[in-house]
Amino acid sequence: MAEILGIVAGVTGIVDVGIRVSGRLHKIAKVWKHAPDEILALSREVSDFTAVMHSVEDACRSIQLAPSASTRLASTLGDNIMKAAELIRDIDDAIQELASLPKLKQRSKWLSLRTTLEQKIKALHGFRVHVGHLLRAQGM
Question: What domain of life does the UniProt record list for this protein's source (predicted)?
Answer without folding.
Answer: Eukaryota
